[in-house]
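debug: dumping io for the single-chain case to check the tokenizer round-trip. Nothing else runs in this session.
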Amino acid sequence: MHWIAIILTTAVLALLLYWLLITTEGVYLGRRVVVWLYDITAHKYDGIKEFEPDAEQFFLIRPLLVRLRQVPNPLVLDVATGTGRLPGFLLEAPTFNGRVVGLDASGKMLGFAAEKLRPFGHRASLVQQVADKLPFAANQFDLVTCLEALEFFPSDTAALQEMIRVLKPGGTLLVTRRKGTEGKLFVGRYRNVQQFEAHLAALGLEEVHTNPWQLDYDQVFGKKPVIGNR
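debug: decoded output
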């Protein structure tokens, strides 16, 4: 019985450690752990994700270009940009003539992003900062994006408030909602579609809607109201 208890205890601890460090990527252990985990995995991040250029252009970039089609020289902010996934694909699009700022708390991830975005020169810039303290003036960006990251911030609400603050009136916010079984493992953080859309609306966005995207994520769009239109 003694050995059975030891084995069961070890198994429980192993599962807990896996949940804390792998499934939820350190979020319940604090921001420093999350950033550290991304720093030590930055060199293999793109290999793990295996981004498919055609799928990225069709399912991610094309919807953004539609929303920017009336905006001359758009300015885009990508929060938690990682290795520069969205900036790279967006700047490769022939019809995009704007600039992109990528922001991330992980210096190692930004190092790989810098190499990826070097060919685009001044059209791409990178900032090392956390999402809930964006170092930008209000009403500055035509589009703000945040992919596969909200659930790893200390407060998704604080980060969303900052993203909305720096978004221009009439501008678009694109974020992702973690879904599925793993999404529900983010205890105290999971929201279903209706709850998430209501949360964004309560923060001041309009025209909030969800698009199915990946196995683990939905895309959720919202628009910052134009002053005087509410």
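debug: round-trip ok. DSSP finds nine helices and seven strands in the chain.
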